[in-house]
Design brief:
This protein has 452 residues and is α/β, with parallel strands linked by helices. It is 39% helix and 21% strand. It has two domains: 271 residues, Alpha/Beta hydrolase fold, catalytic domain (Rossmann fold, 3-Layer(aba) Sandwich), CATH 3.40.50.1820; 163 residues, Alpha-Beta Plaits, CATH 3.30.70.
Length: 452
């Protein structure tokens, strides 16, 4: 189950997004690399399986640091002290007294600094592809080469990062994760992070660490020398080094079970993937499926030209994703000028659709307005290859096609699931949807009259 997002506030007033999952002794999971998004990553089965494996025996706490993901974005201070204060805020918000700490790559120094400053809090420390001195990481020729893309081609940079560094398969998975990276942070935020870390060196803190420490690294990573991990383990008292096979810089890709097993051994517990995490397909889950589509997108392009029309559609994508994020929707995919998303709650799906229509009613670019069609249905879709299939999905798509611009249409099942709420549903009669033998009763949501 996707956990709910909560917020903690740092001493300097920055809101930090986090969630927790599972029961037992806590493991605080620092943000991924420099890009992190505590909500969007749940769209990836690999990430979901990673968290569920870790949470099979412990409570996992995961957060986005300042300036990225769902945390407050408008910040300029990415110093080590500031990033440590993000972690302190989450720990204080949850009232954690003692916990294990898991730091990844650029957040390895943050985990080291926190453990040195708060030895009474950290029971165990685990570091994945981490470093103490930024120069040990930045000197790699591969890293220097890919960094050049940051200012010249942001999309190419993120796809290179997803494919070469993290090891996502070429094709759809790489592009989708690259999109997550772009949703996580801006090129300006990345540049500010790099500047703050340029001279970072926490080597002097290593002898002060008292918690048992595990250094994890994969032998086949060719952009980060394993000798950095060896040196790190040699400088930390009571530290051990585990070198794993594989080439991915992401622990949730490749041989995930070996990584989780190593972490649990470090915590003094056994991990049996067969017993602790079912590999069988999950039971079907009731989901509400939402489709959006821009009315007259082809005419829009012909009228404005490719560049100006793309600017309009880029705003449409931003407003749509903002609404999904605010209402707990999970983006499944985009299809030209349309979106497909799912919700665990029909009520939140309808609320999101209303928020979208209101956002577009209030928005224009150079006098150009965008009208969108929205259709909703609920059922038990089949999950496969990071997509959803089945009758429930097809019907939601067909319902969206029946809508006019500025209209929200829903099936009878969505209306029933949202019964008791304050939504106003107006019957629109039965429609014979393409591909269905029997007509479907549709209802329109009066979003203009809905409670704000």
């Amino acid at each position: 189950m996707e956990p709910s997002i909560q917020y903690a506030t740092t001493d300097d007033g920055v809101s930090i997004a986090f969630w927790s999952l599972g029961e037992g002794e806590p493991i605080v999971h620092l943000p991924w690399f420099r890009a992190s998004h505590v909500q969007l990553e749940w769209q990836f089965p690999e990430c979901r399986r990673w968290y569920e494996a870790l949470a099979s025996k412990r409570r996992i706490v995961r957060y986005d640091s300042r300036g990225i993901g769902m945390s407050f974005r408008n910040v300029s201070d990415f110093s080590l002290d500031a990033l440590v204060s993000d972690l302190e805020a989450v720990v204080d918000r949850l009232g954690l007294e003692r916990f294990a700490l898991f730091g990844v790559l650029h957040n390895g120094p943050v985990a080291i600094a926190y453990a040195a400053r708060h030895p009474e809090k950290v029971s165990h420390l685990a570091l994945w592809c981490a470093y103490a001195k930024n120069a040990d990481y930045a000197q790699s020729t591969q890293i220097q080469a890919t960094r050049r893309f940051t200012e010249t081609d942001w999309e190419l940079y993120t796809e290179t990062l997803a494919s070469v560094r993290l090891g996502w398969d070429a094709g759809g998975s790489t592009r989708r994760f690259a999109s997550l990276i772009r949703e996580s942070l801006t090129p300006e935020a990345l540049a500010a992070q790099r500047e703050a870390f340029a001279d970072l060196d926490v080597t002097d803190l290593l002898p002060k660490l008292t918690a048992p420490t595990l250094i994890l690294h994969r032998r086949g990573i060719n952009w980060f020398d394993e000798r950095v991990a060896q040196d790190l383990a040699a400088r930390i008292p009571n530290a051990s080094l585990t070198l794993l096979e594989g080439t991915s810089g992401a622990p949730y890709l490749g041989d995930v079970d070996s990584v989780v097993s190593a972490i649990y051994r470090h915590l003094g517990e056994a991990y049996d993937p067969a017993a602790d995490l079912e590999d069988d397909l999950p039971e079907p889950t009731l989901k509400t499926i939402l489709f959006t589509d821009v009315e007259g997108s082809t005419a829009l392009t012909q009228r404005l030209g490719d560049a100006a029309a793309r600017d309009v559609l880029r705003d449409y994508e931003r407003l749509t994703r903002d609404a999904l994020q605010a209402h707990g929707g999970s983006e499944v995919k985009t299809m030209g000028d349309g979106f497909m998303a799912t919700f665990g709650s029909a009520t939140r799906a309808v609320e999101c659709a209303i928020a979208m229509q209101r956002a577009f009613a209030d928005w224009s670019r150079d006098g150009e307005r965008t009208l969108i069609r929205i259709g909703l249905n609920a059922g038990e879709p089949i999950a496969e290859d990071e997509d959803l299939f089945g009758t429930a999905v097809i019907m939601a798509s067909r319902i969206a096609a029946e809508a006019s611009g500025g209209q929200i249409l829903v099936s009878n099942v969505v209306k029933l699931l949202a019964a008791g709420k304050t939504f106003r549903f107006s019957p629109r009669g039965e429609a014979l949807l393409r591909g269905f033998d029997e007509p479907v009763e549709l209802f329109e949501v009066d979003w203009a009259a809905a409670d704000r």
